[in-house]
Specification:
Number of strands: 13
Radius of gyration: 19 Å
Number of helices: 12
Distance between the termini: 12 Å
């Protein structure tokens, strides 16, 4: 079966600046690579400029695309901040010497498990991998919402499942790493992926795209972060059903970091201070983005999932980040072929 693989660097640049309402702070311009959904990114950057007076040039990309771009620009860095996306991609960048450590005083209250001990990255939200299924698809095939990774091996899901490609999408790599954990290691995990591959209609570039495809009745199911599924439900895609695998699912620690060689490192430190604070973490809920938050004083969205109700795997962002390229290479060589 032929697969559609979209892995190009599709970059939309939004220049934000010149706000008429500016708070106290330093003058200057930052360039920020953002891994949030577009509406969340715009709201956050606008608020940062209003709060600090620092103007921002924003480029919105998936986490894997940001990692690739930062690697490509390492001899001549073009951006100051990487904002959003799973911590394992930040660990991979740290391993390559692409980040500069900074311990923000605003991050002191954030639990240790949500930040790098040396300050290379700071976690500002948590996202959990979930399953999105289309209610009509389930009814037509006599199925219940999936509660196991193995449910997707049912013949009814053949050519009806969508996930992103892990080389471009941090979401997809989190899902891929989760599958290896659930199955007990690389070899049994890749055996499972070999069985899953014929079920997949398309590997998208964007990690959130599978949810929209499910909502538009284009496919039966998608694998993506639960907060993106909740967002599509909020937008009126009433046929989307959210469920979680009982044997365990992975999660991301969404992070922020200073890029090594940042042209404006002092301003970049101010951005980290701002992003780590509760008020910045709470911005997502204003644009119907429902991640769980890392700062204990931040008010989580009412719509956010209850983490204690979900079987979370003991995911290690450091191991996941250090092994990222190795696992993706095997995925491309053994599964995509």
């Amino acid at each position: 079966m032929k697969k559609t693989i979209a892995v190009g660097l599709l970059i939309s640049a939004v220049a934000l600046g010149g706000c008429t309402s500016k708070g106290e702070g330093s003058s200057g311009t930052l360039t920020v690579y953002v891994g949030f959904q577009e509406d969340h990114a715009v709201a956050a950057i606008d608020q940062f400029t209003e709060d600090t007076g620092i103007e921002v040039n924003m480029v919105r990309m998936s986490a894997g695309e940001i990692l690739a771009k930062v690697r490509a620009e390492r001899s001549n860095p073009q951006a100051d901040i990487w904002y959003g996306g799973p911590a394992d991609t930040f660990v991979a960048a740290q391993k390559d010497g692409l980040l500069t450590p900074y311990k923000s005083p605003e991050a002191e209250a954030i639990p240790a498990e949500y930040k790098d001990e040396e300050g290379y990255w700071t976690g500002v939200y948590v996202g959990v991998i979930g399953f999105a299924t289309n209610q009509k698809f389930l009814e037509e095939n006599g199925l219940e919402p999936p509660t196991s990774w193995d449910n997707f091996l049912d013949p009814a899901y053949t050519d009806q499942l969508v996930m992103a490609h892990p080389s471009s999408s941090g979401t997809a790599y989190t899902a891929l790493y989760s599958m290896l954990q659930v199955k007990g290691g690389d070899d049994p995990g890749f055996d499972y992926l070999s069985e899953l591959h014929p079920q997949i209609q398309q590997y998208t570039t964007s990690g959130s795209a599978p949810g929209r495809m499910v909502g538009l009745n284009e496919v039966g199911a998608g694998i993506l972060f639960a907060h993106d599924i909740l967002k599509y439900q909020k937008e009126g895609f009433d046929d989307i059903v959210l469920s979680f695998p009982e044997e365990g699912t992975g999660f991301e620690i969404g992070a922020v970091a200073i890029i090594d060689g940042a042209p404006n490192e002092e301003l970049a430190q101010q951005f980290i201070d701002w992003a780590a604070a509760p008020s910045a973490q709470e911005i997502g809920s204003r644009t119907d983005n429902f991640q769980n938050l890392t700062h204990p004083e931040a008010n989580e969205p009412d719509e956010a999932v209850e983490l204690e109700d979900i079987h979370l795997l003991n995911s290690d962002p450091f191991e996941a980040g250090e092994r990222r390229q190795e696992i993706i290479d095997r995925f491309e060589n053994d599964i995509i072929k």
